[in-house]
Write a structure and sequence with these properties.
about 425 residues; 5-stranded antiparallel beta sheet; about 45% strand; 1 helix; single chain
Length: about 425
């Protein structure tokens, strides 16, 4: 921990300089769009191999629109590697999944994502060559982002989100999503669907706790449960029906934590909350049963009160959670809002979506319990609201945090459809703890 004198000095320097210096403003562009008006980037994810090699996966896409030379929609997912700490990147492979992330389990490198099913592929030579892609379940509609992967008790845990049978929601159907925790033995063959156990499904729209309105302030803006609501007549600045998405999984190992399970059979899901509010995440829990199955349910407070939302800096956008065993802290990488109380009709043209949807400030926090968060610093800031730094993923590389961000510069199509995948390094990140 920093001493009080060190912390005071830090605050004095920050105030007298008139600005906070970002931790990792300098970056390496892993990918730059050849056509920013039509070709965009999505879903960056990163992991570190035992050899020290860094592996990044990301997507490039025309977002369903036809583009030259064949005038068809374009989509490609790529595997990139770096052996010099992120200065130089080499493309190793392309694959056909979305919402993918890489991770190491056993002696192999895997990528899990989705197409019409949850899919996985494997490399046994540090990402140079890859297996055929296989499906882990039957066809359905799936969702996610490159959120975290948890290892405990010799198992690997991660979440994919299933669209339940549609409930009449029109537009962005995050109210139909069910976060599904997946578990497998880390040293098993993760290409074999028999290696995986899928938790039960819990759909946001089905929960009595998701009914509106309530005294919590939900919904903040006018919001229809079944269709898009336009905040600026006649059809401007729309907000989709409420829901949850882009799920991280955590477990509480501190015996003093109110939600600690001495048996180690309870996991918690931390999700982006689409409510119109900022700095709240949606949560659920998963319990492992004696027969090995897993049941997903609503979290309850010590008083027995159902809890659907908790404080979370940047919980209104996609965020990434990383547990650090050395500091015994959860690290949170997400988006910072600065102007969510602006009237929707007064928003500048460069701002994307609704007032809670600011995307150009990437920030880092830490917490001992996933509820009380301490600000660690700004990672990177785009020069304008259009020049995004968002949907970022991170992993620990020795004493540093390495980060990949879905980013944009002045050439970007929008804050949502960026033209850069950027790599950032936060040096000696543990020294930020106070």
């Amino acid at each position: 921990m920093k001493s009080i004198l060190q912390l005071s000095l830090f605050l004095i320097v920050s105030v007298t300089s008139g600005q906070i210096r970002p931790l990792a403003q300098d970056h390496v562009a892993i990918w730059t769009s050849p056509d920013p008006a039509r070709i965009y980037c999505y879903t960056p994810a990163i992991c570190r191999l035992p050899s020290g090699r860094l592996v990044v996966t990301h997507e490039i896409s025309s977002a369903g629109k036809p583009v030259p030379p064949d005038n068809k929609p374009f989509h490609e997912a790529r595997v990139m590697t770096s052996d010099d700490g992120g200065k130089i990147w080499t493309q190793r492979h392309t694959f056909n999944l979305t919402f993918a992330r890489p991770f190491v389990a056993g002696k192999s490198l895997y990528i899990v994502g989705m197409k019409s099913q949850v899919g996985v592929l494997r490399s046994d030579d540090d990402g140079i060559t890859w297996s055929e892609q296989v499906s882990l379940n039957d066809k359905g509609i799936w969702h996610q982002s490159a959120c975290n992967v948890l290892f405990t008790k010799g198992n690997v845990y991660l979440v994919m989100e299933k669209h339940a049978p549609l409930r009449g929601i029109q537009g962005w159907q995050v109210g139909d999503l069910a976060p599904v925790l997946m578990r497998a033995k880390a040293d098993s063959d993760l290409l074999d669907r028999k290696s995986w156990t899928f938790a039960s499904e819990l759909v946001f729209e089905d929960l009595p706790e998701s009914r509106m309105p309530n005294a919590f302030g939900f919904p903040f803006h006018p919001m229809d449960r079944k269709k898009v609501t336009f905040l600026v007549p006649p059809k401007g600045r729309s907000i989709a029906p409420a829901g949850w998405l882009e799920t991280n999984v955590v477990q509480f190992t501190d015996p003093q934590h109110l939600w600690h399970d001495p048996a180690g059979k309870t996991f918690y899901l931390w999700m982006r909350a689409n409510t119109g509010m900022t700095n709240y995440a949606a949560i659920a829990q998963v319990k492992e049963n004696e027969d090995g199955s897993m049941t997903t349910s609503v979290v309850k407070s010590p008083a027995g009160t159902p809890m659907l939302f908790v404080p979370c800096p940047g919980g209104q956008m996609r965020f990434h959670v990383e547990w650090d065993e050395k500091t015994k802290l959860y690290w949170l990488l997400g988006s910072q809002t600065t102007d969510s109380m602006i009237r929707p009709d007064a928003m500048p043209k460069d701002r994307w979506g609704t007032p809670d949807n600011e995307r150009h400030r990437l920030v880092l926090h830490f917490s001992k319990n996933m509820i009380d968060w301490c600000f660690a610093g700004v990672v990177s800031i785009g020069a304008t609201p259009k020049e995004s730094r968002h949907y970022a993923s991170m992993c620990i590389d020795g004493e540093d945090l390495v980060i990949v961000s879905r980013s944009g510069d002045e050439k970007a199509h929008s804050a949502h459809n960026g033209n850069l995948i950027t790599f950032h390094r936060v040096q000696r990140f543990r020294s930020l703890v106070y």
